[in-house]
User: Fold these one by one.
Assistant:
Number 1:
Amino acid sequence: TIDKKPLIKKWISKLPLRMDVEESLINMRFLVEEIQKNNSLVIGEQGENLAQIAIACATAIGTESAPQQLAKDMITILDKIKQSVPPKTMESVWSALPHLEKTKLERIIEHNS
């Protein structure tokens, strides 16, 4: 059998796709749908993929890769993640974010609170 965890982790790390907006939109929608289903393979054991998911969402929001409704869904997901994971995990996720994405997410979350 194939261990899907590294494949999922690699896929998330490539999001949002930058060269093909249409394909990026499809992939970002799929990511959001899987997170909404609470897919543990996508989220990762003990949230190990959450930082990369947050980076992908932060990068996509405000671009063609995340039209208005998809961006709203991403913000809802990020807010749920923030509220549902243990503080230590959230600190780990937040510290893993690059400065630009962290600042962008802080503004988005603050604006939507």
Note: The chain is about 70% helix and 0% strand.
Number 2:
Amino acid sequence: ITMTGWLSFFAFLLHALCTPEDEGIGPHFSCAVRDKSNPFGHVFGKVPYELWLSVIPGILIGSLVGPAVNAAVGPRNIMIVFVIFLLFDAGYNIYNLSDNGYFAELLGLAESKI
């Protein structure tokens, strides 16, 4: 977990410091190899600060409340609720894909639109 945290922090810094000039704030350092496809040496893809800042409160509250909920409910019951949620989500997504004709198109059963 510690290694993942450090690598994520390094990737965050790389994207925060090396964004192209047209992608927002930052010192816009040249951190990548310069070549024909990347003449200025920028790292593509800026840090989505709005999204990043919107999830921090949930992470903080979850890390503070999570151990108490785990102790009160029990890890096995939490896993059961998580599996139920995953099965519901998978069923919901499969239903939406089949309703949109994705599986029929994937299997070649869709009507031709010519």
Note: Residues 87 and 93 are 10 Å apart (CA to CA).
